[in-house]
Amino acid sequence: MRKLALALAGSLVLAACAVPHDRGAVKVEKESAGQAEVTAVFDRYRKVRNTAIELLDAKPLSTVESGAVLAIDSGSFEVSQRLAKTQKEDTAAVEVTDVLTPRFTKYPLWFYAVVREQSVGVNRVQIFERQSSVDPWLLTATPETLAETQLPEIRTQGGAALTVSPADGRGMAMSPKEAATAYAKVLSTPDSAEAGKIADDSFIKQMRSAAETNSGLKGVGFQQSWGANDVKYVLRTSDGGALAFVTLLRLDTYVVQPGLTVTWPEGTPQQAFLSSGISGSGKLRYYHQVLLYIPGGNGKPRALGQYGGVVSADSGLTQE
């Protein structure tokens, strides 16, 4: 049986965290966490993560992460388990460069933090959420940007970061909700009507290039679709725009002609999930958390960074 090799690889890195001052009240005051508190909670996160690494089991992460972050990181641990590989413990030096806490009147509460990891040259732009006064702060979003990427300044009032309703498009070309939907549409259909409304950023180019490579495989029908989850976290930027945390679900579908098998290089996440390759049909599911900047005025939304990976796979019946 002839094999078709795909040169696709992924890299997943778990993120660090920090928290604002815990007052156990519904209203968050303007001041953020003291350095001692940030350090203590970050140390706890590292301890939990390193326990997960030692056990090669993602279960402990559920006490410090949730949502798409937990799904992506669980996928990373599953890859390590299937490939019998260990992950490096989290001992790299990091620096929390910014912590901003919006003001809320009811739960859930969330806050914004930027963590710089010099050793790998990235900033992790993070959201932590707390559902109630008795629940822990959990990491729910952590898109990564290059260290040299300039993040937009967040507008504050009375010392608190200003939030934006996902449906509020005032002062911008579109609302964060509309931008997320349009961004997913452009990824799914490059020649869609939305294409002219979204900047052709590096993430779109990267995903499009990979899709075009897969579409060019002889004897393989390939389709990539994208969808955007509801937008929850949006901050007002100083230019009147918005910084939105957008979670995208990507689905790669393969239909392979009889006598052919699609395979991936040894050691890649795709190969770990589909070790025998795909004969007949198969699907790979990914989550990508995109940091989407919607400039004030008529500027086009663009991604400043992302964090993602394979979260599950299905292999259809083999055709003989």
**How many separate domains make up the residues?**
1
**Structural class by sheet pairing and helices:** alpha+beta
The counted number of beta strands is 14
Order of secondary-structure elements: EHHEEEEEEEHHEEEEHEE
Report the C-alpha radius of gyration, rounded: 21 Å
Mean pLDDT: 85
Portion of residues in helices? Answer: 10-25%
- Stretches with pLDDT under 50, minimum 5 residues: 1-34
Shape: globular
In percent terms, what proportion of residues is strand? 25-35%
- Terminal-residue CA separation: 10 Å
Summarize the biggest pleated sheet: 5 strands, antiparallel
The number of helical runs is: 5
Detailed description of the structure:
It contains five helices and 14 strands. The protein is an alpha+beta fold and 320 residues long. The protein has one domain. Strands 2, 3, 4, 5 and 6 form a five-stranded antiparallel beta sheet that branches. Strands 9, 10, 11, 13 and 14 form a five-stranded antiparallel beta sheet that branches. A hairpin with a 5-residue loop joins strand 10 and strand 11. The chain is globular, with a radius of gyration of 21 Å. The protein starts with a strand and ends in a 5-residue tail after the last strand. The N terminus is likely disordered.
